[in-house]
Each structure stands twice: as structure tokens, then as C-alpha cells.
Amino acid sequence: MPLVAHRPLESLQRIQKEGQEVLDIRRAHSQDIRELHIGLLNMMPDGALQATERQFLRLIGNSNRIAQFYVHIFTIEGVPRSPEMQAYIEENYEKFSDLAEQGLDALIVTGTNPVHQHLSDEPYVDEIRKIFRWADDNVTSVVCSCLASHAAFEIFYGIKRQPLAQKLFGVFEHRVLDKKHPLLSNINTRFDMPHSRRNDVSAAQMQAHGLKVLVAGKESGVALATSPDGFRQIYLQGHPEYDVQSLLKEYQRDAVLYQAGKLSYQPALPAHYFNEHAQALIDAYLRGDSDFPVEALTEEIDITWRDTAKGIFANWLGLIYELTHYDRRLQFMDGIDPNDPLAGKRHD
């Protein structure tokens, strides 16, 4: 079943206008259908905060028809905010303390822009550690995105991310390494995924601690891995949630700064993202012949990762649904008793 608008949120209204089904709370309560409550810890900076809401809401709402999805969005202190965005958060976001009391079935944790060389120096590290520890005891499964994966690696395994020689930025080809894992059921064995990061944790680092590497690429390294049990924590170094303009907007930000003389180097184009016509449009912009051609460039971008992203999230949510119903088909998860009620406190 679809997303439920259990509280006012502009992002829900926007994706509903795009054609995605969103139930109002009264209709949802009139239906005798299983609820799944998914937390979304959104740590993205101001410019990407609402876009990230929409990206994950679309993935959850488009994933399958097994339940009504209540998405509970919250954030933490330590990420710099403008007064306007802080007011938006206070009006629209929920409190972690309330969600911890009510319980969640699953949790998604986004990344954010790193400020320091070492994650342990980030101002939000104590808060994210507290939430990860709570989730490990109370939530069926946690999806960690990009920097959140690196934080989880360090918190739970002492694995330190390593700086890349240059930013990994673009859309890269990947291969499925474990075709039998339920997260990858009915997924193409070769697919694309966007990346945007300056740090990396290698397959060797992960495997040395018993983590399961499920998807990797020659250029990008590990894209998807899990905790040793196969499901409790899911780590993404890439961004399957990205929409068509995500990398474009990031490049635009740096290109505009470069043109204004506020960036000392010409930013690299995202790899495997723009075709020849798009690159010609960008060359014209860099010569000063035009304004930045957002709309024209958008028309030239091929989306080669969306169906895979939907499939992975559909599998994840389906497994959560089954596990919270104590389905014995999930005995593939080492160390997890399928009869153990791991779901949130909402369930009887």
C-alpha cells in the first residue's frame, strides 16, 4: 500500500502531484492493513534536505504494496542550519525521543557533508552514535547511506574510512557478487549507481570484519554491503536514491562558484553522466556564452539506476515485513532467530 500522510509535509504533497499515491490519515485508518513505520534520519545540508526527503519517500512508496508506510523524518544537532531551514525542521520534523518511545520497524540514515578529516571530530558524532546504538537494539534493519555507512563502520567495527586520491563523482557500473542474497532478488546482475564521495572503505577492510560485500564496481569499489548477519545493517557507499538532477545540481554548484572566481579549480564533470551534447552545452557555459543550462542538460541525462534502486528497496521492505511477522524464510540471516520479535514496540 502507499505512503501515509500522517502529518503535513510539503515533500509528500509534491510527490503526490507527481502521481504517486499518498493516503491521508483518515483513509489509512479506515483500512485494516498492516502498518510499517520507517524512520528517516535526514542529516543532509540545507540545499539537499528536502530533495533527500523526496528521494527516499519515492523509493519507499514505489517499492511494493505490502503495507501502509508511515515515514517518520527527524534530524540531529551538529549539522549547520540556516535560520529558515531550522524553522522548517522544527515545524515539520519529529523528535527522536518520541520515535524511540513509540518504536520503529526500520531506519534509514542519510549522509551529510563532512567537515573534518576524521569522523570522530564531527560535531554530530555523539548523537549519531547514540541513535545507531539504540537502533541496533530496537530496529529490525538500518540502511546507512554514504557517510552514515562510514560512521557505522567506525562505531561498530573500528574501521576507518580512507581518503580517495580524487573525488568519486558520477554514475558507475556495478556487478552483483552474491546473487543468492534476498536483498538482490530479481535484480539485474549488472547495473549502474551514482556515487559522490571523497572517502572509501574497501572490500578488504569490510571482509576482515566479517561484513558481507554484495555489490561492487571496478571504478567505484563497494556499493552495497551488510553486517555479518546479512540484514541488521545495510551499507551503501553509493546513492541509489538520487534523482536525475542530483549530480547535475552538485556540479552546477561548483561550476557557478568557479565562474564567479570563488573556486580556484575547474570542477570535474561527473563521470559517465553527460553525453556529448550535454558536454558541449557545459563548454559553452564555461566560455561565458550562456547561463547554466539546467533544463537543457536534464533532457540529456539517461537514468540507468532507478529500477534497480526500487528493486533493492522493495526487497528490503519486504524482508522487514516478513521478519516482523516471524517468517521462517528469513533463516538465511546468521545469528537471527526468526521467532525473536525484533520489530519496534508498535506491534502487539
UniProtKB/TrEMBL annotation:
The protein's Enzyme Commission number: 2.3.1.46
GO MF term list: homoserine O-acetyltransferase activity; homoserine O-succinyltransferase activity
Pathway, per record: Amino-acid biosynthesis; L-methionine biosynthesis via de novo pathway; O-succinyl-L-homoserine from L-homoserine: step 1/1
Positions marked as site (Important for acyl-CoA specificity): N113, L147
Binding site residues for substrate: K167, S196, R253
Predominant location category: cytoplasm
Keyword Electron transport appears in the UniProt entry: no
Principal EC category: transferase
Protein name stated in the entry: Homoserine O-succinyltransferase
Protein species of origin: Suttonella indologenes
Gene behind the chain: metA
